[in-house]
Write a structure and sequence with these properties.
Layout (H helix, E strand, L loop, with lengths): L1 H11 L9 E6 L8 H13 L5 E6 L8 H6 L18 H4 L9 E5 L2 E4 L7 H14 L15 H12 L2 H7 L10 E6 L4 E4 L5 E5 L6 H13 L4 E6 L14 E5 L2 H21 L11 E3 L12 E3 L8 E6 L22 H4 L1 E7 L4 H4 L3 H8 L4 E3 L8 E3 L2 E2 L7 E5 L6 E5 L3
Parallel strand pairs: 1-2, 7-13, 7-14, 8-9, 8-12, 12-13
Antiparallel strand pairs: 3-4, 5-6, 5-18, 10-11, 14-17, 15-16, 17-18
Helix pairs in contact: 1-2
Length: 421
């Protein structure tokens, strides 16, 4: 649907000679009408498509399944036998006389009946259709489909291929023109790489278990650690991410609420010092505490080990996985709220991933709410639609693993396939 609407937009500026007529066939419209986004696209095709050579043919069991605006946009109507002739909008009198044992008999206008033709089942007829199609020599361009699985190295190759063509890069990846991409996260429905720029320092990731949350965090960590000035702080209740971070790049680590609170206090102290000193070397705020069991020494079960103080010019990425497991009555991340708006200046980014259950309520958390308020993006993976819209026009819905809706301020929600290591 989206691709056809874009084709109408392209043709509206001037239809090229010889452009093929396109026909969209929708069998069973009633199953799609509950999705407002699909309805709006279908209405746009019906209302604007004819002049651009894009036509719509749809079927439904009742006229009442069509919303009034869509009914008005449909110019031709064929009415076969209805469950109740009183529902006819073409000719009720004739509708009552349509024989139940004659499929294909239809009311095509006031006082007019017709017998509709059906294609044969023979191979000769199918071959004839193919011969006719081959004479024209034109084929509709295939609609790109998102992959079911996307590896980070494949995404990297796609980024390099797009960047090799300056024109393609500027048109397909407009965010890349405003500055260096911070993280590449996946492919959109045009199979174009999607990245988050320097004006998007924080990220919220919401989804069910096994939806691809932790795999995305691994991809972000690997890209972040490719920077020479990168250090990482982890809040990792399930201890699924620690193997991604070398010991010399791990500034802090926590696995429970109390340790996470201590970690955040230490990080806030570091950011306070950077703010006061303007990130002047030698004015760092001291060591950030690595709380909880030492990840590189499993025998240690309860310790608070000081990590070395991060260099004043380092970029600290705090990654929180399974945030619902460390969020108590009071958010342990609240001390970071004053620093979120100055993240780029202070060399700090925050990525929070949590389960979709209770996500709407969780966004009232001062830190999560502030991230959203600052216009930072959100990734909505598979989840319960009953949570309602978490971003404008973006709600959770069942999705395959690794598939997500990217919600950004000032842009329509985009479906993306996320990359995993």
């Amino acid at each position: 649907m989206r691709e056809l609407v874009r084709e109408i937009d392209r043709r509206s500026s001037g239809r090229l000679p010889g452009a093929p007529e396109l026909v969209l066939l929708l069998d069973g419209y009633a199953t799609l009408k509950a999705d407002d986004r699909l309805h709006d696209q279908i209405l746009a095709i019906a209302a604007r498509g004819v002049d651009a050579g894009v036509h719509l043919v749809l079927t439904t069991s009742r006229w009442h399944d069509l919303r009034p605006a869509l009914q008005t946009a449909l110019h031709a109507r064929l009415e076969l036998r209805l469950g109740d002739p009183i529902d006819s909008v073409v000719d009720r009198r004739l509708a009552t006389h349509l024989p139940p044992d004659t499929p294909g008999r239809a009311v095509v206008g006031t006082g007019r009946l017709a017998q509709l033709a059906r294609p044969g089942d023979g191979l000769d007829e199918q071959h004839a259709y193919r011969v006719i199609a081959d004479r024209h020599g034109r084929r509709a361009a295939p609609i790109p489909l998102l992959p079911r699985d996307l590896r980070l190295d494949a995404l990297t190759r796609a980024v390099e291929a797009s960047a090799s063509s300056p024109k393609t890069a500027s048109e397909a990846m407009p965010e890349a023109t405003s500055g260096e991409i911070r993280w590449w996260i996946g492919l959109d429905e045009d199979l174009v790489p999607v990245g988050l720029g320097p004006d998007e320092p924080h990220l919220l990731v919401i989804g069910d278990r096994r939806s691809g949350r932790t795999s995305l965090l691994r991809s972000l960590l690997r890209q972040h650690l490719a920077r020479p000035d990168a250090v990482v702080a982890l809040v990792d209740p399930r201890r699924t991410l620690i193997d991604e971070v070398p010991a010399d790049r791990l500034a802090a680590y926590a696995t429970n609420s109390s340790d996470a609170h201590e970690l955040v206090l230490s990080l806030a102290s570091e950011l306070d010092a950077r703010s006061d000193a303007g990130r002047n070397p030698g004015r760092s705020g001291g060591p950030i505490t690595v709380a909880g069991p030492s990840p590189h020494d499993p025998a240690r079960v309860a310790s608070s080990v000081p990590g070395g103080p991060p260099p004043a010019d380092s970029h600290i990425l705090l990654v929180v996985d399974d945030a619902e497991l460390v969020t108590a009555a009071l958010s342990p991340f609240a001390p970071l709220e004053p620093h979120l708006a100055r993240a780029e200046e202070l060399g700090f980014s925050l990525v929070v991933a949590r389960h979709s259950g209770g996500a709407a309520r969780a966004l009232y958390d001062p830190v999560l709410g502030r991230i959203k308020e600052l216009g930072c993006p959100g990734l909505l993976l598979s989840g319960d639609p009953d949570e309602g819209p978490l971003w404008p026009s973006a709600a959770l819905r069942p999705l395959p693993p690794g598939r997500a809706v990217l919600a950004r301020r000032g842009r329509s929600p985009a479906l993306v396939q996320l990359a995993r290591p």
